[in-house]
Amino acid sequence: MNRQRILLLIITGLLLTGYAIIHDRAHAASPQPPTVEDAAQSGDDEREPPSDDYCLLCHENTDLEWHLPSGESLSLSIDPAVISQSVHGNPESQLACVDCHQNYRFPHTTPDVETLREFVLERYASCRSCHEEQYLHAQDSVHGAALRDGQLDVAVCIDCHGGHDIQPPDEPRERISLTCGSCHGAILDLYSTSVHGETLFAEQNPDVPTCIDCHGVHNIADPTTAAFRVRSPELCTNCHADEELMEKYDISTNIEDSYLTDFHGTTVAFFEQQDPDVATNKAVCYDCHGVHDIQQVEEADVRENLLATCRQCHPDADANFPEAWVGHYEPTLERNPTLVIADTIYDGLLPGFIGIFAVLIATDIFRRLRRHS
Questions:
Q1: 67 DSSP β-pair partners
Q2: Cα(66)–Cα(52) distance, rounded to whole angstroms?
């Protein structure tokens, strides 16, 4: 009986030994990324960065995931086709894995983060190595200020541009506003129904402004400040004072002059020159036309709604109050006869009076000269 047990133990040991030998040989035959220690033993120093093929030995594995302490998971699988079709896969500006992921070799150390958001905020600074100017502008923007104040959900490079699948940010052009709308959804909804948004999304019109035309790209300023409000008419006149552009749509380019010559514009311009950080309660463009929900302006609709618009600042305005405003178009004899006649008389009287006084002064001088001669 003891002989049978001994024989069974011997056979079991031989089987286990054989299995271990086969397993070790199979493991040795499979490709394994070299470790840092392997590189040191082989004389391969850190100045020789790993190739993309080296990284893809692991990262082409579609089941590769990282499970964070927060319970979130992040797929670590990389599709080379996605990168090749991105802006970084362009042959003229092609980047290798190590250009963004520097000093990485197998095995990796696990980043000391709790959540996926913390990981994104740790990684996005790698964009600075190529795009330092844009990175620094973003740090000085309203987004950068919010991030420094501890708002971890504020947009950083990766949120707007993506990670491995980065595409041209303005192709198609509506992608710009859709990108901003991923965080500012309520504003995107308003913009989409405006005269600008409808034209952009329905017609892909390159002339209408997107978010960045008014707010900037990386150097986005806080739109709630007094300085932004006082200088906001400049944003509108960037397009609406462009004669060639406005001629395409039969829109007056007299907007800037007509605004700056009335009480509102004169006061706002004065504040801008003296101290733009001081708030003014005088109307700027978006007080009358709206901010993101600007609608098509038709004269009949403007006149019909003008009293309600004026009463936002002048609650006691009567029905005749809006008649003092002639609009952004040049006054004509047909549309504004009283104003045109008064303006013509004034234009004639002013030089006439100056001429009369000039004649009086000249004759007085002549008389005095003759008296002393």
A1: 73
A2: 20
